[in-house]
Amino acid sequence: MKSEVFVNGLVCKNPNYVKTEDFFFSGLDKAGDTSKNLGSNVTLVNVNRLAGLNTLGISLARIDFAPYGGLNPPHIHPRATEVLTVMEGTLYVGFVTSAPDFKLFSKVLNKGDVFVFPQGLIHFQFNFGAVPAVAFAGLSSQNPGLVTVANAVFGSNPPISDDVLTKLKTAV
Hints:
Elements: E1 6-7, E2 10-11, E3 40-45, E4 59-65, E5 70-76, E6 82-88, E7 91-96, E8 104-109, E9 114-117, E10 122-127, E11 133-139, E12 147-148, H1 149-154, H2 162-171
């Protein structure tokens, strides 16, 4: 961790000290707890959890959804495109294009279906089915970032002025 060589903001490990564990992660076979966080749980495997991803430009996630309303709320990944594959259950997914159109592209996905969310666009996944759903996502960055829209707008610190939010609501 004392190296002066950084790639994408992370220290490059001396190749003489690299070990097998730097390229290994275990646990994506285990369901995440969906009893909180809007009925979903994201297990992200990025460079912070798997050192061997450094400089490779990829990461992945397992997303578990509770039945009848498990939601991965509208969010963006500022540094990654996401490709999502449904492994179990049924999900309603979509993304919204940028201005001036703000067009919604959405689809109901079943087991084995794949959907792509372009980098930086607001997107979501929702389980309206009677059984839990599981999806795996590949992301085109070792550190894709996450901005949940509602948390950013209504949970900023310090908060955004009510005058701004009220004016915003009436302008839509």
